[in-house]
Write a structure and sequence with these properties.
255 residues; alpha+beta; seven-stranded mixed β-sheet
Length: 255
């Protein structure tokens, strides 16, 4: 058993703290679901531009309820104002690097609508990861709610809830460099951020995919997050300073 194994009680207590924090904002309500069809419906309602991205699109994936868990935030009129989704992956026998390359080359297209191609060195950081993983994506918050750090709170809640259900070896996602520079990955619960994840031979039409970072959190990070889900530790004094450095709340939370 891992020395960083977290009890179910600790995980659920941390999720409850995060959900309570969100629900204190304008009488919002947090709900978890396993339906991709409902995710699509809520993404439309919340005004997400690309509705549901490639990793959760029903046209590109077969995702039974046992492999999907997403979180939605609803206002007092039952309108969805925020979403974030996770999917469970079990590619034992492959490394995560092999899985990422195979998936991207199958799903994403170039500007002339041909399959993208990646170099063999692509996703090299993920080459040492073998086993069960959880991918996190589909983060979106309606513009009028983006000053409340809702996405940071629900991403952390989803990471912990996903760990409760699936006990993965790694939870991971992808982020643009501008988000990394603003430390969004720390606010969203990740402890690792590595640049230049994907080395393209023929790149995708979507330029936002060209220079993605690989972000992740493993069992040690999950244990720390479960112990401090609201990231209160970021405000603790350090050294000779009288005040710590609080984690900045992002002004724009669309992933």
């Amino acid at each position: 058993m891992s020395i960083f194994n977290v009890s179910e009680f600790s995980l659920m207590r941390a999720v409850h703290e995060l959900v309570t924090k969100v629900e204190a904002i304008d009488n919002l309500e947090v709900r978890f679901s396993r339906s991709v069809a409902e995710l699509k419906q809520c993404a439309i309602q919340s005004g997400k531009k690309n509705i549901v991205g490639e990793h959760f699109a029903q046209e590109l994936n077969t995702l039974p309820p046992s492999q999907v868990l997403w979180i939605g935030v609803f206002d007092s009129e039952d309108n969805c104002i925020a979403t974030c989704a996770s999917k469970f992956e079990d590619f034992r026998g492959w490394s995560l690097q092999q899985q990422i390359i195979a998936y991207f080359e199958r799903v994403f297209r170039t500007a002339d609508n041909k399959p993208v191609q990646l170099e063999h060195s692509a996703a090299e950081y993920a080459g040492v990861v073998c086993g069960k993983t959880v991918y996190i994506g589909e983060g979106h918050v309606k513009p009028e709610y983006r000053s409340h750090n809702i996405l940071g709170l629900i991403q952390r809640a989803l990471i912990l809830q996903a760990h409760f259900h699936w006990r993965p070896d790694l939870v991971y996602g992808f982020m643009r460099p501008d988000k990394i520079r603003k430390r969004y990955h720390l606010n969203w619960g990740y402890t690792l951020a590595l640049p230049a994840l994907l080395h393209w031979r023929t790149p995708p039409a979507d330029a936002s995919l060209h220079n993605l970072y690989f972000v992740a959190v493993g069992p040690e990070g999950i244990a720390r997050l479960a112990a401090d889900p609201l990231l209160a530790g970021w405000s603790r004094p350090s050294g000779n300073s009288k005040q710590g450095t609080p984690l900045p709340a992002p002004s724009s939370e669309a992933q």
